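Spend some time on this chain, tokens included, and walk me through the fold:

. . .
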Amino acid sequence: MEHTGLNSSFAKSRMTPSCLIFTRRTPLRWQDYRYIITQSPDPRGINVALLYQRDQFFYLRHESIPIRFSGNKHKLTRDILHVYGKIITGDTLDVFVCHFPSRYGGEKESEKDRFDAPALLRGSSDSLLLIREKAADTHYGRLQ
């Protein structure tokens, strides 16, 4: 796999200030790292973020994809972060950063909700095949 200048260590980030600390007050500041973070409706304030180097990954656009649960319409969780940009080879790379719902509340009780998130990711990822000539995507984060 080619080096893309991407880092998945921010798959779960509680606050934007922690991203600022990593990119501005640690040795990472010399590597020109930037980040993109969701502002998810998760009541705990948990978001997902992507950390990237600007000279390795040219950011083009991002979107937050909200997860809607079929069994509980009012349940809130972290969005899926979809970022796309160009890597140094000139190819377009789509990155999905996820932190899917856990088994909180019981494995059996949460099972339906845990299937909704990957189904949404699969649909989003598959839709790229329709619009990209050469689709290349990467999934980061806690997927189960």
